[in-house]
Amino acid sequence: MSNDTQQKAEPAQEQAPHAGDAAPVATVASGVLGAFFDELEKTEDLKDKAGKLRALILGEGVMAEPAIRAILFPDAT
Questions:
Q1: Does a structural domain hold residue 27?
Q2: How many domains does the chain have?
Q3: Fewer CB within 10 Å: C terminus or N terminus of the chain?
């Protein structure tokens, strides 16, 4: 690595935000799932289930089929 490359890299390191200053970072998956749940909430039949699914998947991090199935089909359990 040449000195020019090192000099160019250093200012970028100095400009990095401090941990306390940074806004919370969301993953791509949570962003996509959040948008999906937003759309589900607009559907009259799925409005109540969307909130429960959001809490289960994004809140608790549970992606197990039985738990999701219990929310979607409560009468089947």
A1: no
A2: 1
A3: N
Parent domain of 73: 49-77
pTM above 0.90, yes or no: no
For residue range 36-72, list pLDDT tens digits in order: 999 999 999 999 999 999 999 999 999 999 999 999 9
The identity of residue 46, as a single letter, is: L
Crossing angle, helix 65-72 and helix 47-54, to 10 degrees? 160
3-state secondary structure of 26: coil
Integer-rounded Cα radius of gyration of the chain = 21
Instruction: Kindly state the helix (H) or strand (E) to which residue 62 belongs, with its residue range.
Output: none
Fill in the amino acid letter for 74. P
> What does the buried/exposed string (b/e) look like for 19-35 if buried means 16 or more CB atoms within 10 Å of the residue's CB?
eeeeeeeeeeeeeebee
